[in-house]
Design brief:
- The chain contains seven helices and six strands, in the order H-H-E-E-E-E-E-H-E-H-H-H-H.
- By secondary structure, the protein is an alpha+beta fold.
- The protein has two domains: about 110 residues; about 60 residues, no CATH class.
- Strands 1, 2, 3, 4, 5 and 6 form a six-stranded antiparallel β-sheet that branches.
- It starts with a helix and ends with a helix.
Amino acid sequence: MNEFEKYRTQSFHYLLEQGFHIKKSNDREITYSRNSLDVTIFFDPTSYEIFALFSLPEENVSVSLEELLRYFGIIERKGIYQIPTLDKMEIGVDYISTVVNLMIEKFALNEKIILNDIHNTKEKEHVQLLSNYYLSNDLDMADQLWKNKEYQKSIELYEKHETDLSETQLMKLEYLRKHLH
C-alpha cells in the first residue's frame, strides 16, 4: 500500500458514511459512487498533484473540483493540491478531502442539475472559443487576400462575417461591393 492509498482511506471515509461505495480503486485513483454520481480522487506520481473529478457517467458529464469551486464562487480554495514531497501526502489528501466534502454539502442532492449546468456552460464556452478562432482566421485571411488583390475571395469572407467586421474591414467591404458588383 502506497502513501496515497493509506491516507485516502482515512480522509474520505465520510463518503462511505454518506452512502457512497468504492467503485474502482488502484494505487493512483479511487472512485466513490452513489446513485448516478461518481467522485474520483487522483494522485499523479509525476507532478505530485492530488485532484478530484465529479462525474455522471450515464450522461457523459465530468466536472473538475476546480470548476465546481468556480461555479460556487469559492475563491479561497483550490481544486488541485500539489505536494512537494511524498512525505506530505497526508496534508494534500486531507486538503482535497475537505474541499470534496464542501462540494458534496453544496450539492444538497442537486448534483445532476449542477454538474449538467457546469458541463453545458463549458460546452457553450468551447463552441464560442472555436467560433472566435475561426472568425479571427477568416478575417485575417480576408485581409491577406485584400493585400494580395484577390478581391473576390476577400469579399466572400468579409460578407460571411459582416456583423463582426472592424471599421476598416467594413470600408474594404463597401469598396469591394461598389467595384465588383
